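Milestone M4 deliverable, item 7.
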Amino acid sequence: MGLFSDAAYDLFCIPPILRLLGRIYYQKPHLPTNNYNNNNDDNFVIRRHVDSVLLGVAFFGTVIGQLVFGRLGDRIGRRRVYGLSLMVMVLSALGCGFSICTSRSCVLVSLGFFRYLLGVGIGGDYPLSATIMSEFANKRTRGSFIAAVFSMQGFGILASSIVTMVVCGIFNAASHPNPKEKTPTEADVAWRLILMLGAIPAAMTYYWRMMMPETARYTALVELNVQQATKDMEKVLDVSLSPIAEDESLTLPQDPPSYPLFSKQFLRLHGRDLFGCSASWFLVDVVFYSSNLFQSQVYGKYIGNKNKANVYKDAIHVALLPTIVAICSTIPGYWFTVYFIDRIGRRKIQMMGFLIMALVYFAIGIPYTSYWQGHINEVSAELFPARFRSTCHGISGATGKVGPIIGAVGFGWASHGQTEHPKAVKILLVILGGVCLLGLAVTYFFTPETNGRSLEENEE
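Output delivered:
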């Protein structure tokens, strides 16, 4: 539920929210005309920059959260930090909805502040969820369990779109806005409600996170307390103490390694793996989040004309496409991985993913101006030693979240609204295809296979 709420719902509910904010605080009293996307309109350009900042500030917070909470997870324990990251997410999600005031500048500054804090909490949940799941799972099903945790992102994306459409549909039915009138004042409540609803699923998990024992691997291998680790495993597996105590896998090494993080020995033993995980995560996030800039340009004509919609239908239009994509491809793709990851391996599936994405982007991008426009990471939780596992996963994830800053935000700033231009869209789509091929190469040359081995075997 952490990945459902933070990495998906809270991040992916923002595009329709930005549309609502634009209609409430930036547009003229009347609905947009055909010149709505006119790049000579200073008001439009300013709004584009504000959109980019509100998108980027959450990702920047996520980078900070990944690094800070990932390191804390290795220093003071996964369980202790897990609840803290959750509380940051819940409180900041509620703060995003309140956003203190109603004037344009105050609302945007307040929303940006709470989105940053939300990003910090989101960043904390990434390494902790994956690390905890990997350390509780066994080697035969570990890949499926970690993939199942991350698959909740697909359901979170779907939920954010459905909640947006339901809330806006209710407000639309209640207000019956006149297309010739200005945006109704009730719309200012709609976007706040959508953001605040994201806190509910995360808050519901707090009790179970606090009742969860510390992972036995952390207790035994980092705190060097085998007796407590044995007791914790007894709770988890619900078996008597003696079979666990006799398990040789719980014995400590005679001379535990003592090299610090980022020492020469760490870089020699794990630097290649850390680079492979970080680089591939960075590249996939460039593509994953950048694609949100172009979906409406490629497919928008098939699901209605947004320029003729009122404020609520406009937001529903923006949320409709992610709903279709989540149902038809995102969720099935996640569960394909859940089913096959322990059968054919992590490395092959990751390479398949990059290859398919590259082919799709080339197929859309290369003929874009002549056809489309005219017609309309889990390996990082398994590779590293227990005392560095959460930190390294956080570093990999933080590097990944630099991707959307460069992709979704950087492309948006660089284009200044030029993504509406067919040739600009074509070039950027082809670039994203090339990024996918680079990700495939990084996976092939730098990412080892972790399938079928215990975490300790992977470390060796």
